[in-house]
Every structure is written in structure tokens, then in C-alpha cells.
Amino acid sequence: MVTSADIRNTRLVYEPLRHARKHQDALAPHPATLDGKVVALINNTKDLVDSLLDEVKTLITKYFPSA
Predict the structure, then answer these.
(1) pTM of this prediction?
(2) Rg, Å, the chain Cα set
(3) How far apart (Å, rounded) are the C-alpha atoms in residues 64 and 9?
(4) What does each C-alpha distance from 66 to 29, 37, 48, 53, 62 come to in angstroms?
(5) What are the pLDDT tens digits along the chain (67 aa)?
(6) How far apart are CA 64 and CA 42, in angstroms?
(7) Where are the domains of the chain?
């Protein structure tokens, strides 16, 4: 019979690994340039995301001025 003390003293250990895939899924094609593209930065309401997105916007504007 399992008692509540047994349950409190039980530790579950999960194996985080799984069998390796036999093949890698192909990556989605990426455009060679961002020229003329629209880049959307979406706020996910996480802490400090505004600061992160402001920095991303600054970098995109700096390195891809025509995006």
C-alpha cells in the first residue's frame, strides 16, 4: 500500500534526451537581402522586450537601411 509519506518522498527523474533523428529537416529559404522587405518586430509582453526590440530595430536600421 502506498502511503502519503511514500508519495512525498518520491522523486521523479525524467530523461531529457531522446533518440537522435536520422535526418535533419531542411531550413526554410531565406532572402539574400532585406532590400524592400518589411520587418515586423512584435512585442510579446515579456519583461524588457521593449528594450530588446528597440536594439533590434537600431541594428536592422544600421545594417539594412533599405528594409
Answers:
(1) 0.52
(2) 24
(3) 57
(4) 20, 8, 27, 18, 10
(5) 777 777 778 888 877 777 777 787 888 998 888 888 888 999 999 999 999 999 999 999 998 888 7
(6) 18
(7) 33-67
